[in-house]
Amino acid sequence: SRDRHRLTRTDTDVFGRTYLPHYFENVSAAFHTDIDEMLGWPSRHLFVVHGPREHAKSSRARARLLQRLLGGEIRYWLFCSEHLNLATRHLEAFKAELTDNRRIGTDYACNVLKWDETGGTLRVRVKVRATGKTHTFQLEAISYGRPAKGRLYMSRRPEGCLVDDFENTRTSRNERIGWEKLIWLKQELYPAVTGPILWLGNTGHEASAMYQAMLDLHGGDDDALRAFLRAGSVPGTVGARAERSEPSNGLERVEEDVEPQEPDSDAGQVEMSCCSYRADTVTAAGTVYLWPERFPPSWYASMRATMNDALYEGEMNGFPIRVGRYFKAEWFGDGFDELPSGEMSWYLWLDPAFGKTESACYKAIALVATDRHTHFVVDAWMRQTDPLSDAIDWMYDAFERYPDLLSGGYENDFGQDNRLERDFQDAEERRGYPLPVSGQPNKGRDKARIESLQPLASTGRIRFPRRMKPDVKTLYNQLLSYPDGFVDGPDALESAINRNRVTAASRPYYKSVGSQRRYATAHVRR
After folding, report:
1. What is the dihedral of CA 105, 110, 111, 112, to 10 degrees?
2. DSSP code of residue 395
3. Could you report how far apart the first and last alpha carbons of the chain are, in Å?
4. Distance in angstroms (rounded) separating the CA atoms of residues 515 and 328
5. Phi, psi of 5, deg, nearest 5
6. Nearest-CA neighbor of 209 among 271, 143, 165, 148?
7. Which of 68, 64, 72, 70 is nearest to 106 (CA)?
8. pLDDT, tens only, 101-157
9. H helices then E strands: how many in the chain?
10. β-bridge pairing 363-370 and 375-383
């Protein structure tokens, strides 16, 4: 009807509850109106927006775009992701609503003229039943690194772009990749459009493209950026600030010179803004949550407990844990003087390296014991210039020195197993018996493995001796300085702790006869 058409043209909440009730089951969050404002921005502008996971950033953006597409306000729009298939998912969502949503079909006659799932193109003709007017729009999916400039639909250039799923866990931890992505957005995507670019994501990590974009907006002043991120942006105020010329409370606006990569680029200056919406913010009056209409305080507390503080602060609050402070000294307490009584499981792990210079990676051995709750760092061996034969000799001595140590392992990635096999065989001939250790691969990236220790450390479940030997102190310092500097000690510690959790159920490696050990070669696995 004409009344329904009039009411849904400008109010996204009314539009969503009328045509998309499956997305609008809860009262909208205040920051959702900011997304509406950004997508309706009248000029070319790059909005860099952090928002916590599961807070309907993408869904709200698609609802606002669908409202403008059906109303004929947008005729040509881009969707950009790290990979083309991720960007194409947005087009699939639009196609499904336009062809299968009966509510939309009641007021809008939609005819799909072109659907290229492989290339990422959707063209639709829309007839607005309330007015009888007809228009056509085209949506295109593009991926990072692909050409964006020069795109045309009829005589139109893209009127804007939604950038979503632009980083993953791996690439967001690579500073070089993050910076290259930011440059691509500024020099390739920005000149290709005539309207707003809304970049949705999570600040997550200090190396991420989004963090670097916000840092760039703050003139490279990391302290200023972190003060901004700590405070967060005030939801629901972008529209109120739209007429202001000065930066204000979370919408930082700058214009900066960018040298185009191509001489025909008309980018000139890049106008950018950044917003960071925190999942929860502690104020003098109590904790303020970003979407209390949908999520109770217990949900936020559960997410923090599940993700751990570091991940929660980065991905939900847009405040990455600072470099060098991922693990805090106070988490480890004063240290232990002796292990608790009762049954303990022990494990030793070698992270080998083959360099012999002062700048080489460390050859790292971590020896841990656990009572199934707390993990005690009993001993360690951390050297750069010493040969691997010394590391293996130290392992032999450790098995003799600690009678409860039953098994261990070493990393055999990248073909190291063959080389280490010879080293262990040489040591076996010298000592007269084999070590009860096995070569095992380490799955996943070392940073992801090391950071998995954060929940244990933050809850006091990793303990170091009160009086540390020099090598244990080296491991401890590497952990505190992570991710700066060497990570070999923390990597070995993570492997020892996690493998120690599963060793108690099967201990086939040796049997003790009096005070003398006898090792059964048949049980030794390499």
Report:
1. -110
2. H
3. 75
4. 41
5. -60, -45
6. 165
7. 70
8. 999 999 999 999 999 999 999 999 999 999 999 999 999 999 999 999 999 999 999
9. 18, 19
10. antiparallel
